[in-house]
Every structure is written in C-alpha cells, then in structure tokens.
Amino acid sequence: MADQEEPALTIKTAAELAEESHVGGAADAYNADQIQVLEGLEAVRKRPGMYIGTTTAQGLHHLVWEIVDNGIDEALAGFASHIKVTIEADDSITVSDDGRGIPVDIQNKTGKPALETVFTILHAGGKFGGGGYKVSGGLHGVGASVVNALSTELDVRVVRDGRVYYMDFVHGRVRTAMEILDQEAPIDRGTIVHFKPDPDIFQETTVFNYQTLLTRVRELAFLNKGLRISIRDNRPAEPVEESFHFEGGIKEYVAYLDAEKEVLFDEPVYVEGEENGIVAEVALQYTTEVKENLKTFTNNISTYEGGTHETGFKTALTRVINDYARKQGLLKENADSLTGEDVREGMTAIVSIKHPDPQFEGQTKTKLGNSDARQAVDRMFSDTFARFMLENPAVARQIVDKGILAQKARLSAKRAREMTRKQSGLEISNLPGKLADNTSKDPAISELFIVEGDSAGGSAKQGRNRLTQAILPIRGKILNVGKASLDRVLANEEIRSLFTAMGSGFGEEFDINKANYHKIIIMTDADVDGAHIRTLLLTLFYRYMRPMVDAGYIYIAQPPLYGVSLGNAKSMHYVDSDDELAQYLAQLPANAKPKVQRYKGLGEMDYDQLADTTMDPANRRLLRVDPVDAEQADAVIDMLMGGDVPPRRKFIEDNAVFVKDLDV
User: Fold this and answer.
1) Contact predicate 271/250, CB 8 Å
2) N or C: which end of the chain has fewer CB within 10 A?
3) Which of 386, 405, 390 is nearest to 288 (CA)?
4) Is-contact 167 155, C-beta < 8 A?
5) How many C-beta neighbours within 10 Å does residue 279 have?
C-alpha cells in the first residue's frame, strides 16, 4: 500500500484569510469589520440602559440623581451645605451646590481641564481613590458624563476663587471649551449644572414629575442630617418651591413615616456609631399596627433588597428583646423565644450606613454584601438598644408584649397556612371561589380573572378562552388586609382560595417563580362597590404578593359603562363615560333611534358582550398597576386602608369629586 502524501502547510496572508471569511455569505461573516469601536460617550448613547437601567420615566429622573449625588458627595465630605434642584419651564433641569466646585486645572492623564474630563470621560471623578472622597454616594462614579451623553445640551458653571468657569456640550460633545466668564458669580462657590434630556433617548417622556423628585429630595435631606436640599418647579404660572432641612436626620424620618399612626412611645430610638470607618445610624419606633416598615440605605442608596447591614440590625434587635424578656421574666423559662418576625411587627425603622467601599450584590445593586457592615451595625445597635430597654422599662414592656401577641398570631397563622397548603389542585374547584382553571400550564400565557359576583363569573366562564383564561369569582368584599393580622387574613375563605389558586405562597414565603399566572386581571363593576373591592384586592396583592405588582403582573379591566344600539342592528357601540355617550349621541342622524343600555354591573352584560369588550385581547383595554414610587404608594395604602380614620377623612374631603349622572 502506497504511503499517503502529507498535506503541505500553506501560509496565507491576512488579506486572503479575510477574503475567505466572506465566502459563506453575510450570515457567516464575522471579522474585524464587525468589531465596533465606540469613541467617547457614544457607548452610552448606544446602550443607555447599561448606565441608567432604563430609558423610561424612571431613567429620566435618574439623570437628576446622578448630578445631585455629586453635591451629596461634597456634603458628606463636609464642604457643601445646600443643594438646589430646579425644573425649568422647558423641562430642563438645573442642579446647584455650594461645595468646592469641580476642579478646573489641567488633568495630567488627559491633558485637558478636569472639568472637561469629568463630563466627557466615563469613570472619571473623585470617587475612585486618591483621597477625593472618603465616602461616595454615587453607585458608579459615571454620573456627570452619562447625563451629558444623554442630553441634547448641557452647560456647567463652576465658581472657584471668585471666578466663573464655563463649558457647554451638545449630545456629550464639547461645544464651548472651558472659559472664564466676565460676569459676577451667581453663587459664592460651587457648581451649577443645567441639562436637557434627549427625546431621542427618552422616547416615552421627557417631562419631569415634580412629586417624584420631591419625594427623593426629602428622603435625601432625611438621610443627610444638617444638609439643606431645595426643589423648585418653574413650569406653573406661579412656581412652587419647597426646602428640606432636618437636624435630626433619620430620627425625624421615622417620625415623618409614623406621623398619622398611633405610636407606643413619644420619641423614636436613635443610635449612631462608627466602627472601622463605617458610620451607622439606626432609628426606630413601634406603632399599634401590624405592618413592619423597615428601610435600609448605604451611602444614600436605597438597598430595598436588604443585605448585611439589615441582617446585623435584625439579629441584634431580636437578641436584645429576647434577652430582656428572659431576664425580666416576661417570657416563661420553657416558652419559645420570639422570632424576628414577632419583634418587628408594627415597627418602623431606618438603617443607614456610610461605607468607604460598599460592595453590592446582583445586577440591581440594591443589596449590600460587605460582611463588616453586619458586624458594625450589630455591635453598635446592640449596646445602645439594650441600654434603652433597661432605662425605659415601661416602653420595653410594651415592645415585648407586642412581640408576644405577634407570636400568638403567628402560630395561629401557621396552622391556617398549613391548611391552605393541604389544598390540592383537585380540591380547588370545591373551594368557595369556584375556580374555573385554564387548560394551559404555561404561566406566561395564563390569565386569571378575579370577577366580582357569581353572575358575572358565570358570564366570564362562558365567554373565556379556555386555553389561556381562568376565572375566579369572589363574593362581596374581601377582608381589608391593611389592618388585619395574618391569622385573620388566612381565616378568610375568599383570600385563601386566591392564595391556593395562585400556587406561589404569600408573604415572606412568596415565590414568583411558582405563580400559575403571569397576568392577574381584576374585573369589578363600574360603581362605588366595585371600586372598593378593587382597592381591597390591590391592597392584598401589595401586602402579601408584592413581587407580582413590581413585575407588572396585576391589571385592572376596563369594562364599558354604556352600550348603544341603533334600530334593529345587532352591533353595539360601547362608550366609557357620560361625556363620551353625549358626544356619540350628538353626532347621530336626527332620525336615529338609539337604544342606550347602562351596565350598572358586569352581570348585566351577555357573555359575548363581556368577552368582546373586556376579555378578548384584540379589543379589551387593561390598566397595568405600576407603583412608580414605592414609598408614596405604601404611604397612600397605609392611609386609605389602615386603621387611622382622620387622615383618610381628610384625603376624601380634599380629593372628592361630585358628579351628576347623565339622564338619558
């Protein structure tokens, strides 16, 4: 057998290789030509979501905080005392602070003024070591350059040593090189940044919400005691302005959150300390309510997913209260210790730390991971709170008694929860809710309609798409969970049926990955009772299945108010309000004989009408429940659904609108 000849080694040029790479066609082509090099801030404009999370209204408002954070950093370093945020008449933003002013001398590495470097180069600033700031409030240190990149225009004035330095930019590019203005300084010292967001980036909206900005400005003032932060809106005919300054810091924050609640003691407990460079503050108060309200922050960033500082606080709180209860004989020797859930019932608390090198977990950067933060908060809070309990025995007794009461309710709820878990899928149809499940087991396409009344529930069952739509009728008004303990919540059959149908658990055990439906549609009558039922259901989801609300899984159906038919025509024209009805009737021919049907309840609609107007994805209109401002939503739900009557009465008096039905 002849030897096979070895293939010769062929050496090809880069050009030949590049030509061969295109042989397979465009679909196979992947070479150096496909590697894009984005210069300067082009990367930010290309992928803005990577830098500010989203280009929705939330991302728009995030631009303001990126600039405000720079002023906060100056305040944390002890150089600034007043920050001003102004919404201009054209929906541009001006932020000023009285800090040292951004440096204007030449930066060695770039050969450009530091002012230009800060606004044109990512990751340039005083937050990355070198002694610029001991503690920094910004997450990434890219704020100024990102805001510049995502604005149609931005200008900045820096006042240092009595001189006014000026630069302006267009779409992140320098338009006017740094110059010294021949004008009187508008402030003694500091930085003034003015920018207008780019509508090509923020296509949803470029209109700033005053209330959203106001809420965060107030929160920042609470978190940085002694700092004054002002906000002004120049858009109304008469501009509005508010200024916040809290010498008590988070102690006043807790008092503000509990302003409309009955508290167990007059002054919130306040603890402050420092360990290994970590400054920690804790303020807490107890109310007569059931709900726990715990907020944690790191360098002014809301860590709503918790983290090590929250763990340190919770551990210390539970240990101190149990130790006190045992030593004072308030807990019997053989009695179970109070759990963290028990001792936090009715508690309002703020945990705020300033960390020189915070490490956050996950993509959202809202969970702290530093182990030293847990130790610092635990040690600092334990000593001071234990002393407070000993020095205030009457208050300490109230705290322990509330925990013991919560323990009893928890054990009762545990028994009710176990009963709920025992409900198997086959038993769901026998529950009071009479669930008619859909046949698909894919949660992504499955919808659960929660329907008011058996009559409307029957129509919905007839008109539904059985593959994707499940129907759960409810009778009357469910329990108001805003002022009920968990054991009472689970004793309610309608709520228990809903929890069982969802399959995802509830409260601390809730797991959104186990949800049987990714679209929950609340379908109630268009009257006062329907609105009340809808509010009760929204409160239930917000309190016990909050991730469903955050994920955008909760919707409100919008059934029409009137149906209009002409003569013997079978087709129906639907309208949503008295005004729409009047407009529609006015444009009909004079000889038309319209027949108007007012749907006072869903049960008055035939199943095909209900399906066509309210259930068919091709025609229906749904409102998605989206809490843009979680704290504001939480406060409103507390006020409307909690136990305190006076603030609820005032809200109704201030916001009531009286309407007169159109007589047709």
Assistant:
1) no
2) N
3) 405
4) yes
5) 18
CB–CB of 455/598 below 8 Å?
no
Q: Which one of the listed residues 342, 437, 525, 634 is annotated catalytic?
A: 525
Other C-beta atoms lying within 10 Å of the C-beta of residue 244: 17
Q: What's the rounded Cα separation, in Å, for the pair 643 and 647?
A: 10
For the purposes of burial, counting CB atoms within 10 Å of the CB of 586, is it exposed (0-12), middle (13-18) or buried (19 or more)?
A: exposed
Give the DSSP H or E segment for 360. Answer: strand 360-361
Burial of residue 216 (CB within 10 Å: 0-12, 13-18, 19+) is buried
Handedness of CA 511, 517, 521, 522 (dihedral sign): negative
pLDDT score of 632? 54
* Strand order across the beta sheet in which 594-598 lies: 573-575, 562-566, 594-598
pLDDT at 136: 62
* Catalytic pick among 42, 272, 372, 527: 527
Confidence of residue 628 (pLDDT cuts 50, 70, 90): low
In contact, 210 and 179? CB cutoff 8 Å = no
Active-site annotation holds for 527:
yes
Structure tokens at 236: 């109304």
Q: Are strands 151-160 and 163-170 parallel, antiparallel or unpaired?
A: antiparallel
From CA 401, how far away is CA 403, in angstroms rounded? 5
Mark out the alpha helices in 3-104 (DSSP H runs).
14-20, 42-46, 49-52, 57-76
442 by Cβ neighbours in 10 Å (0-12 / 13-18 / 19+) ranks as exposed
Q: Please compute, for residue 547, the number of CA atoms within 13 A of its CA located in the half-sphere on the CB side.
A: 14
Q: Are 145 and 119 in contact (CB under 8 A)?
A: yes
Q: What is the pLDDT of residues 554-588, one digit of tens each?
A: 999 988 888 898 876 667 888 888 889 999 998 98
- Quick check: 231 pLDDT over 80? yes
Q: How confident is the model at residue 427 (pLDDT cuts 50, 70, 90)?
A: very low
pLDDT band at 661 (very low <50, low <70, confident <90, very high): very low
Q: Which helix (H) or strand (E) holds 521?
A: strand 519-523
Residue 601 has a CB neighbour count (10 Å cut-off) of 17
Q: List all residues 6 or more positions away from 374 whose beta carbon is below 8 Å from its beta carbon.
A: 308, 309, 311, 312, 315
At 570, which amino acid appears? K
Of 452, 494, 634, 638, the active-site residue reads 452
pLDDT for 569 equals 61
Residues 272, 529, 578, 644: which is the catalytic one? 529
Residue 483 has what pLDDT?
Answer: 72
First to last CA, the chain: 104
Mind giving me the DSSP string for 148-204?
HHTEEEEEEEEEETTEEEEEEEETTEEEEEEEEESS--SSSSEEEEEEEE-TTT--S
Model pTM score: 0.70
Residue 612 a catalytic site member: no
Q: What integer pLDDT is reported at residue 2 of this predicted model?
A: 41
